[in-house]
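target protein:
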Amino acid sequence: MISCFGKLTWLALLCTTFLSAQATDVVEYGRISDADRALLQAPADSAAEAYVLYDHLDLDFAYRDGEGPSTVETTHRRLKLFKPSAYERANITLSFNREYVEYTDVEGIVHLPQGGSILLTSADIVTQKGEGLTMTTKFTFPRLCPGATIEYRYVKRTKSILTPTVYTFQEDIPVRWAEYTATIPAYYDYVSLGASGRYHINESKIISREWGPSFTTGPYASRNELDHTRIRWVMTDLDAYDYQPYSNNFIDYLPKARLQLRGVWYPGEGKRSIFSTWEETVDELQDRKDFGRYYRNKINYGRLWSAAEANIAAAADLRGKIEAAYRFVVEHYRWNGYFSILATDAPNKTFENGRGNSADLNIALLSLLNEAGIDAHPLLVSLRNGGAPIEAYPMLQQFDHLMVYTEVDGQTVLLDANDADRPVGLPRVAALNHRGWVAEKGNPRWVNIEVPPAKQTVMVSMDVAADGQTTAHLRSRLESYYAFDARSALNDMTNDREAPLASVIIAQYPDAVVLKTTHEGAAKGANSDILSLDVDLQLPAGQAMNDFLYIQPVLLPMLDDQLDDVESRLYPIDFPYPWIQRYVAQINLPEGFVVDELPASLRLKADDGSIAVVYSVDENVALRAVTVNFAVQLDRTLYTSGEYGGLREMFRRIIDLQQAPIVLKRAK
């Protein structure tokens, strides 16, 4: 029997063209052919460090009376290692929340190219407790050598059936066979949110088997026979994906299977939609103990408020109170390294412990802001490179991280408590994923995740000798993310060569010597968005050739050449934040030399005005100096791949300018 429900479910799911194909021979775990054992390079990519011979994820469902349904996912993977650089792929780590997930039946084996195989023992597979409810299962394969094949399989059981594991067919190495199968009971209606590809096998059929709870009414009164939809998607001979720099949410562009539960239809109960509305979703969140009730009920944060109240009350205005609350949290909490939208405990408890996940820290901040009378709300985001958020469906599973949304004088302020080095209004870069959801009761809404431009201004004085050796003094003013990155680098560096700006110059001039660094506003937890940094160096900024001296005046590049090293882009260009860089250099000429050639001054602007460039070069004969002014402003952070052609020319012009030399010649 094929139910109407089953037809409707998979009409939405199987949107690609149906192809009939014969199944390949079943790959038997532990048995490898002589040809595969002897293989020493990927057939279509001789430079590949590894090759996926076989990868299969099978989704099934289990049901236990009293516990309900769960997913049972079996992974079987066989991977060929060609080069020592691939050996890291033989270190497998499975992290999970022990309250909801269990890994069982973990097995591993190494097939040696010269013959023979080595089974992993139980002692080789180690499960350890981590922070909170986190557990890890780890195993490493021994006796690796070029041509070795590692093979492993395991079963993952998850109590929630809302979002099965996302399966990606394509990888950063070639793949011979990638397969996703699922056997789904007719009670459950899943929608496919994955990116389809050109399948070698695309099959769907209805099978009947015993499964699930006992019902006494309806078409499923007997638990002996229940319709299941069985799907099989296979892709073969996949090239390694071509990662391109400045890409974000890269996984969105790869073929993958991503299922999301849309509804449940148990006999006699009527269809129950899993996708409610954003309004209903925010009501449920606000009523949760580990979300809304933690920051709206003073019994959960009273002790935290008592400790912070004096600091907040002393502030003169709204912005000052926000700053005081933020500083209190970042100075009294330590992030445990985990992202979440749900708190692990009440703010009173996490304050006593002095640590927590990202939701713990920001829910503590919400508690203080709301008690201080400041209108602030949770802001849920998906992290960069985890996929763009889906706004059409109220899916909480897509969110990784909780921040705080508030406004001052009509201007949005985004708060992300974590690091004492990062000031108010600067979320961590991983959270800058363009869109976020404000979980305000009665007014849930999507908002843009936008921050003001980061600014870097550098003034340079260069004294150039006749042999090209140069003494340079850099005076800089860094703001926003430039200041935060520099402050963190200063606090972590072990020598002056690791200092901000200096390390960038040394990357281009390895023989450069740092003479001195000084700074203001770099103290740990500095309550400022600005950092001033001075650096003195000696470096070979010039090159003497016969009677000529070629000087490189731009010591700090605005862009790197990764932005123009391809003729076309497969993926959008995605900068995390807008920025403005200004560079002014005075080059003091050596005795006995005069200017022979200067780069041409230039102004550029993108067609949409989002990129502006100003470059000018002026000679002061009286001072025997040349001044270079170079400024680049990037106002837009996201460009489609189709826009790359025009942008590439702009990028190339900028890179040419930052590499353009000043040419001197020996005076007659």
Q: What stands out?
A: The longest strand covers residues 50-64.
